[in-house]
Write a structure and sequence with these properties.
By secondary structure, the protein is of the alpha+beta class. It has 2 helices and 7 strands. The longest helix has 18 residues.
């Protein structure tokens, strides 16, 4: 009981001491704030936007699979790529990303080893590669020649023109062997 009464007495003393603390600040705050009046700004008027009608019924579908292939425009009846043939794996990559890393002879036919994304593919003349309808025309020990079909670069006609590209053999840097210490 004595312990309780001493705790209550200490609490009362502390409360009494704290009542006068910072009274000068409290007086200043009440004097300064008596002339202040709070005011909330009115909500700004929301202006309606004009209604614009949109009809996409006659526009082409943006996610149509036909958008992936080049547009089939009628030209003067010259050469055109075969859009209906099955695609080969190397046609998914641009020709610039393909790298010739070697050659091998298989049944007396020279095959080139083409690397892309850490995968090596074998190609022989007649295979397709690159995204511009490229066909491998010849393979030597040092290069692969590819004939591509591209639409007229001038854009004036819808004709397809041939373009020759070459992939050079990329020599791998061989690590130098260190001499053994004697």
């Amino acid at each position: 009981m004595r312990a309780r009464s001493s705790v209550v007495l200490a609490a009362l003393l502390l409360t009494a001491c704290g009542a006068e603390e910072h009274q000068d600040i409290k007086d200043w705050m009440s004097e300064v704030s008596k002339d202040m009046h709070g005011r909330v700004q009115p909500i700004p008027e929301i202006k309606p936007f004009p209604i614009v009608s949109y009809d996409a019924g006659d526009l082409p579908e943006p996610f149509d699979a036909a958008k992936v292939l080049p547009e089939r425009r009628s030209g003067s009846g010259g050469i055109q790529p075969d859009f209906d043939r099955p695609r080969e794996p190397l046609e998914a990559y641009p020709l610039e990303s393909l790298k010739m890393v070697g050659v091998m002879r298989k049944n007396k036919v020279l095959h080139a080893l083409i690397q892309v994304d850490n995968t090596v593919y074998q190609v022989r003349p007649g295979n397709h590669m690159g995204q511009s309808f490229g066909v491998v025309t010849s393979i030597t020990d040092a290069e692969v020649n590819v004939k591509e079909l591209v639409q007229d670069p001038t854009g004036q006609t819808a004709d397809w023109v041939e373009r020759i590209a070459t992939l050079q053999l990329q020599e791998q840097a061989q690590p130098q062997q260190k001499e053994a210490k004697k």
